[in-house]
What does this fold into?
Amino acid sequence: MGSEDSESSSTEKGESSLDIETHSSADVFETLGSETRIEILEALGNPPGEKMSFTELYKAVEIDDSGNFAYHLNRVLGTFVLKEDEQYLLSHAGEQVVGSVQAGTYQAKATVEPAAFGGTCQLCGGELIFEYTQERVRVYCDECGAGRSFPFPPGCLPDYDIEELPAVSARWYRTHVKRVLDRFCPLCAGEMSGELIHGVNEDSDPPEPSLARFSCITCGKQVHLTGATIATFHPVFEGFLFEHGFDTRCGPHSEVWAALDDTTETTHTRDPLSIEVTFTHDGETVTGFVEEDASLTNVERQW
It folds into this structure.
């Protein structure tokens, strides 16, 4: 990539500085538009983190002309491939490309037809349905339609039996939510801001839960979570649930909430907006407040 297509900036922070060099998206994807270059990345990604000499890498790629190979290697060098002590290894960007290829992000298309898996809707008691289409998992109630939808890599599907997918996708969803709550965008890793956009509508039937919106300041990606979900992932709430025998890793959180002696979510204040979330089981209570920036504060366990 020519230097004329890049930008560089330096931002001072005290005695140190941050240097960022960016390239046009068109140039980046054009660089990947070669079977030989993709083979180079895949060779270095088997397994990721391994270093290879020029000779080892040349032997691993199906190309007869070493000069032609060197040309393609130089095209990905510095962006997707790094060179250390005369050996080559994937950069973080290169690992992301190889990981996306292995996950089937760009090539695989898969569908799992809707099927019940034994879950129960917390809102109406209906049967929960699992389906996979357009690279997204949907878990929803066959009676009231309430549920959730989230991205799930198609490359994961062949590794599991269909009966395992609801639990597997629940574990994946857990990593997705944890990343959002740590304020990292699941799409671009940019910083996410949080905002509690509405409280609990107790007059609706069933009562409408609160909703917080997390927005990436880099790419604009948005993720919506309820106050109860935000609380469920807090270490104190997680410890409470685990000590009472509930595992949030293996199924919809709504099933865990329904199994507790009591789960309540109420609007605490309206200006600024805040939500109180309380879980109760076996005489013990854990409480927290979801604030206007979608952070959880004042978490307490009471016996």
In short: The radius of gyration is 24 Å. The chain has two domains: 32-102, 112-302.
